[in-house]
Amino acid sequence: MTSPIVVEIESLEGTRAFAQKLAGLLEPGDTVVLEGPLGAGKTSLSRELLFALGVDEDEVITSPTFAILHEYEGRALLVHADLYRLEHPEEVGEIGLDELQAEGAISLIEWGLRFEQELEGVVLLIELGFLKRRVDDGKPSQKERDWDEHDSQRRLVRVHARSERGENILRRLAQEGALSERPG
Question: Has residue 51 been placed in a domain?
């Protein structure tokens, strides 16, 4: 697999624009795993992806943390799952995710990396993190000291291909200017 591609997202509008470009490339059967610390924007990105995949904008989309799995109708069957509360790999099969994936659902799976072996059709891993504000104190640069607290809106998003299909999606996103490669 190639190196991850990185994009900086500065606002909700940036999240929406990224989601629209990515959604245009997703097909039935694709699974996207989203990882990152609490509050990094996994649910916000999932929400924008679901809207871009055809869910009515009036639909209230919330984190499936307690329900574990939500289904939506869009241009395909859409699944938004949060596996944070699952403890064992066999629980992935118990929530019915495999049947929905077999039906051709496009699946957005938060906290799914530790269960990647149990998930079908994983094409991308998206890691979200906080961008930090640069401190300009006029002193020589020291890597650890150059960054202040995280900025509540800005995100650093690393997109990793997890299959040949994922590689194709990354190439197309890069061609469309959705992403910029940065050392990873």
Answer: yes
Cα–Cα dist 60/70, whole Å? 11
For 88-94, what is the mean pLDDT?
Answer: 92
Q: At what angle do helices 164-175 and 12-23 cross, to 10 degrees?
A: 120
Quote the number of domains for the chain: 1
- The Cβ of residue 67 has, within 10 Å, a number of other Cβ atoms equal to 12
Backbone angles phi, psi at 40, to 5 degrees: -80, -15
Distance of CA 99 to the CA centre of its chain: 22
Mean pLDDT of 146-156: 61
Q: What domain range includes position 128?
A: 5-175
Nearest residue to 171 via CA among 8, 17, 21: 21
**End-to-end distance of the chain based on CA atoms, in angstroms?**
14
Helix axis angle for 42-52 and 12-23, nearest 10°, is: 50
Question: Whose CA is closest to 89, among 115, 108, 67, 120?
Answer: 115
As given in the structure block, the two tokens for residue 95 are 């929530």
More confident residue, 120 or 19: 19
pTM of the model: 0.85
DSSP 116: G
